[in-house]
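hey m, so remember when u said the tokens were messed up on ur end? i reran from scratch. heres the input so u can diff it against urs
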Amino acid sequence: MVVLPAADSTPPAPRGSWGALTLGLAARAVLRPRLALDLLATAWAFRRRGWQTRPPFLPLPDREYLRWRMYTAYADERAVPPAEDVIRFARWRRETMGL
């Protein structure tokens, strides 16, 4: 017996790992320098403020902020976005903000 989802149900949030996403984006960026710049600019914009004053002293995003962003985008705070979504967002950010 096949059970079909209800017509008004939302698709499940993307799953995966942040490490796999990072490696996949890095591999694409090696081949496309413009994409590399877009991704670096986007990562820098998402860094936690005051990152240089707290361990691990890396410009990483704040976990609470990242959870909120995933919840608003995918209705699941544990979601990991697909690489295509990140690439589209980075390109959109550059084009919209004139970076």
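this time it looks ok to me. DSSP finds four helices and no strands in the chain. if urs says something different then somethings off w ur setup not the seq
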